[in-house]
Amino acid sequence: MEHGADPSVCNKDSDDALQTAALHCGSTFGEYLIRLIKPTRQRRADVYALVASKKTIYKGGYTSAQDILACWYKSVNIRMEELTEDPDESVSVGPKEVYHFAVEAMDIDSLMNIAHDVDAMRMQALVLHNGFSV
What we know:
mainly alpha; about 0% strand
């Protein structure tokens, strides 16, 4: 982008630079792009949620639970503190049997209730991941 690349240009999967960073590069590059592009608050919350869901679903030995929770917390905090006009807005697909009727954690208490349950965190990740246009 320092050489003129347009971060809003989408790839063949309709992902722009921020979505691609969240899907493939993780939080460090995603945060770099957030500082550079200055997306909307909703978009920032979505990026952190998507990074957390990807890290949860495809967790490798290099990703700690603490790193994953940090991304979840950033997303939830943005939604709670900065998107107060519609705090119930969600990217989640809603309660479905296939996800054991899990829904997106919309506040810190909901997130804390599942933070120590690996299966619940994976279900949270799937609910969010499938709610994004990926």
